[in-house]
Amino acid sequence: MPEGDTVHQAARRLHSALAGEVLTRSDLRVPQYATADLTGRTVLDVTPRGKHLLTRIEGGLTLHSHLRMDGSWKVYAAGERWRGGPAHQIRAILGNDHHTAVGYRLPVLELLRTTDESRAVGHLGPDLLGPDWDPDQAVRNLLADPARPLGDALLDQRNLAGIGNVYKSELCFLARATPWLPVGELPEDVPVRLVAAAKRLLEANLDRPDRSTTGRRDQRLYVYGRAPRPCLRCGTPVRSAEQGGENNNRDRVTYWCATCQQGPTPAHTSTTQPHPTN
Question: CA 277, CA 259: separation in Å to the nearest integer?
Answer without folding.
Answer: 23
